[in-house]
Amino acid sequence: MIGGRLNFFSNLVRIFPTSCSHACRRELSLSHVGFSPVSKSVPTQEYDLGIVGGGIVGLGVAQEITGRYPHLKVVLLEKEGELATHQTGHNSGVIHAGIYYKPGSLMAKLCVEGMKATYQYCDEHSIPYKKVGKLVVATNDLEEKQLLDLWSRATQNGVPGLELIGPEGIKEREPACQGVRAIWSPETGIVDWGRVARHYGEVFKSRGGEILTGFEAAQFSASGDQVVVGSGDGREVSCGHVLTCAGLQSDRVATLSGCSTEPKIVPFRGEYLLLNPEKAKLINGNIYPVPDPRFPFLGVHFTPRMNGEVWLGPNAVLALAREGYSWGTISIKDLKEVLLYPGFYRLAWKYMGYGLDQMLGSIMIARAVKELQKFVPSVTREDITRGPSGVRAQAMSNAGDLVGDFIFDTGEGELGEKVLHCRNAPSPAATSSLAIAKLVVDKMEDQWGIK
């Protein structure tokens, strides 16, 4: 059984204070965001632990805890009909090495550990991947200076195998690419993260875990020493404790246990372009720009895929729905929530020029081509077509700041003692998923007590 009072994750993670004045009430619902009330006529199934969310983080934790404690009865609840449908299934497929992240941060630590664990896991389970490497390329003197700052950060993070190379080294690794200097990361790779996540699910089920799809968590309520999770279609499960990893819906799900609505999830769509098959043969590995410290995203880059495609991008534009993968997908409820949020306006004002440029780039492919030609001059507009897109669950504060590290929260009262929310798992969450899973289960051992 899992028992004991939940204390928060000490100094490894950050808690946002709850603003709910009725956090100790026995039942909190999401009726205000359109979920149906739970029918009490459906029999309740009982579990030691419930995990809300069938993306790569939730599935990683499910696999980890059933590996350590096979006697526990664990259920994973996923609102879609299939696993890994949203952020995991729309991932670029890169296995990151930990170059960009602030030294000493949880994100940096988990990325480096997670990369090593990912390769080992794929080897053990015969999941294909490719260590294609990555070049972070400077094309002028200013970018070279910023590249050296990035080199310092990456070496502090303990990223293995890094080299600082000049034009000849760039040409040796990517003959079609040009630049004045670059960081070469041989350990960066590519994999199908959807396949990896679904394999986590297969291992979880083989250990006795249960997966309920089409189960959208709409209500949490306390019942004795249990947490009852109700779905909009009337099903219920009763769990000793609950972990939520709800991605694009994480802030809404967190309010079910009395948490604050912050950090708010603001959806940003990243749109990719496709390089034609003939030109794709010129690209050996990942080619990235030096990130501009003035802006919050990495910029357009060349990303090879396991199926031989090369993706170009992405940009970053406001999605008009939390699961809005095109301009034609609009949710009035989701859009209204963003437009009424003060933090969004503060962010928009801060990055107005950048945001307008990203929107124009979404409409006019030629704008992206100009950026791509800085690195691979032979790319032309005729070589490029529109490709897939993904939506990032970007956590944002009321001050308009983008939350860039992992955030966990609990809430208060009876539910807060038994529920843990993963409210922000930013890129590289897929790369870090096995390391995140170990961290979360370690904390369950320390704080909830597992026997």
Protein architecture, described:
The protein has helices at residues 56-68, 106-124, 141-156, 167-173, 193-206, 250-254, 277-280, 332-339, 342-350, 352-363, 365-373, 413-416, 433-448, and strands spanning 27-29, 44-52, 74-78, 94-95, 129-130, 134-138, 163-165, 181-185, 189-191, 210-213, 217-223, 226-231, 236-244, 264-275, 286-289, 301-304, 310-313, 317-318, 384-396, 407-409, 419-424. 30% of the residues lie in helices and 25% in strands. It has 13 helices and 21 strands. With 451 residues, the chain is an alpha+beta fold. The longest helix has 19 residues, at 106-124. α1 runs parallel beside α5 (193-206), α2 crosses α13 (433-448) and α10 crosses α11. The model is unreliable at 1-41 (pLDDT under 50). The strands form four sheets. Strands 1, 2, 3, 10, 11, 12, 13, 20 and 21 form a nine-stranded mixed β-sheet that branches. Strands 14, 16, 17, 18 and 19 form a five-stranded antiparallel β-sheet that branches. A four-stranded mixed β-sheet has the order 7-8-6-15.
